[in-house]
Amino acid sequence: MNYIDLALLVVVVAFGIRGFYHGFVSEVAGILGIVLGVYLASRYSVAVGHLFSQHLYDLKNETMMNLVGFLLVLASIWVFFLAFGVLLGKVLVFSGLGIIDKALGFIFSCLKTFLVLSFILYALSKMEVMKDANAYLQEKSAFFSTMKSVASKIMRLDGVKHVEKNFKDNLEEMSDEVKNKESFNKNKQSFDKAMDKGVETLKEKAKDLPKNMLDPKPHQTPPNPTPSNKEPL
User: Fold this and answer.
1) Residue 70's closest CA among 42, 89, 93?
2) What is the DSSP letter of 143?
3) Sign of CA dihedral 178, 182, 187, 188
4) What is the mean pLDDT of the chain?
5) Mean of the pLDDT values across residues 179-205?
6) CA-CA distance, 138 to 121, in Å (whole number)?
7) How many CA within 13 A on the CB side of residue 224?
8) N or C: which terminus of the chain carries fewer CB neighbours within 10 A?
């Protein structure tokens, strides 16, 4: 075991100790809060952002409204699940199942950290700038190869591919919606500016209109008819 494997092991065990302290129920509640929070935030971020902008603080920017709405929904769901997990964990402690909850919390947190690191390392290994580092870690670290293999197998599952595709589609849909609304706002601003300019021009012409009406036009005498030299027959 080299220093790379030792560092990865220390990170996994450190988060496992944290899971032992919080307990299994609290750890699971935190994960469920994040997953459900992201799902609900992707659905209702636009509506919540508009409500926030209308009743609390006018953000005046569609992208900022969507971002604030997303964060508000995510934070609310996550905090609710964390509080529920802490409350349920205390109930288990008083019921005499606290040690089981803590032991399962250690195991669950170690597995969770292992998977998170696996996905991070897998994503980094796909980047072109990490090509040399990937080759070095692949050769020197046994943990890196194992983590990368686990993440690769999970990413090839049909269910994960379906979720990933839906997530990307939702992001593209939100991005297109934001772009369309921003384009509409820009066109509306250009139209408003053109209308304001036209109104100002009409006002200037209206100011000159009474002056033109009051100014008398010079009297023009009709031309005298040219006398005819012909005598009547």
Assistant:
1) 42
2) H
3) positive
4) 75
5) 69
6) 11
7) 3
8) C
Give the C-alpha separation, 113 to 101, whole Å: 18
- Helix, strand counts (H, E) of the chain: 7, 0
Amino acid making up residue 85:
G
C-alpha–C-alpha distance, residues 69 and 74, integer Å: 9
Q: In angstroms, how far apart are the furthest CA atoms of the chain?
A: 144
Tokens of 106: 């250690």
Q: Are 122 and 147 in contact (CB under 8 A)?
A: yes
pLDDT of 148-182, one tens digit each? 888 887 777 654 555 555 555 555 665 565 566 66
pLDDT band at 225 (very low <50, low <70, confident <90, very high): low
Contact of 112 with 15, CB cutoff 8 Å: yes
C-alpha to C-alpha distance for 77 and 66, rounded to whole angstroms? 17
Over the Cα atoms of the chain, what is R_g? Answer: 37
Between 68 and 158, the more confident residue is 68
Under 8 Å between Cβ of 117 and 147: yes
Place of tokens 């195991």: 107
Tokens of 76: 């609310």
Q: Is residue 61 within 8 Å of 128, Cβ to Cβ?
A: no
**Residue 176's pLDDT is what?**
61
Answer whether residue 93 shows pLDDT above 60. yes
